[in-house]
Amino acid sequence: MIISIIVAYHKENKLIGFDNKLPWHISDDLKRFKKLTTGHFVVFGRNTFESLPNFNRFISEGIHPLKNRKIIILSNNKQKYLNRNKCLDLYFVDSLDQAITLAKEQGESELFMAGGSKVYQHAIDRANKIYLTEVHSEIVIASSTISVSSNAEEITNKVFFPEYDLSKWKVTSEEIFEGYTFKTLERIF
Ligand SMILES: NC(=O)c1ccc[n+]([C@@H]2O[C@H](COP(=O)([O-])OP(=O)(O)OC[C@H]3O[C@@H](n4cnc5c(N)ncnc54)[C@H](OP(=O)(O)O)[C@@H]3O)[C@@H](O)[C@H]2O)c1
What we know:
Helix content is 26%, strand content 34%.
């Protein structure tokens, strides 16, 4: 089974989120996420799970928050949601090993580690592949435009992708767009 990380981070400082939200809205990035992950297991940390747009409907109506994906949520306090979870294809586990075992047992071919920063920290050494969206423009936060590079300190509750050794990875595809680049990296060591 391939273990893939899927992430959008800022080119200059690897910012991935703030205030438990994405710092930007890049519609093509969301489309890419959907295209790549549809039909697969996707692992989220509890914070990212709670940030999903349909999280409130999961709480109020028990509706699966991400169509056509099997979601595994990592939490050390999984009882919080286990009792109310009536959805098929939604699992709560308390370790990355359990998430990997669960996906393998169900015959998954490619498991996606979809953040946030705590999950990426644990997953980076286990991953074979990274689907990266490298954001390199000014980003829009709420209604104001903020240059991530110059004003990063002003953004509160920031979270970042972990530092990792690029010499262990090879870029196998690259598509450049205005404001962002889609890259695929494969582990070589
Ligand atoms: N740019 C991107 O591509 C991208 C993608 C995803 C998320 N994000 C952003 O990232 C931010 C959230 O990241 P975050 O670091 O705050 O939170 P997170 O990684 O989403 O969730 C952290 C929580 O997940 C659980 N967890 C994580 N690793 C675990 C492990 N190995 N074993 C057991 N439990 C584990 C713990 O839950 P408990 O506290 O319940 O124990 C932990 O407190 C948000 O701003 C979000 O928008 C960005």
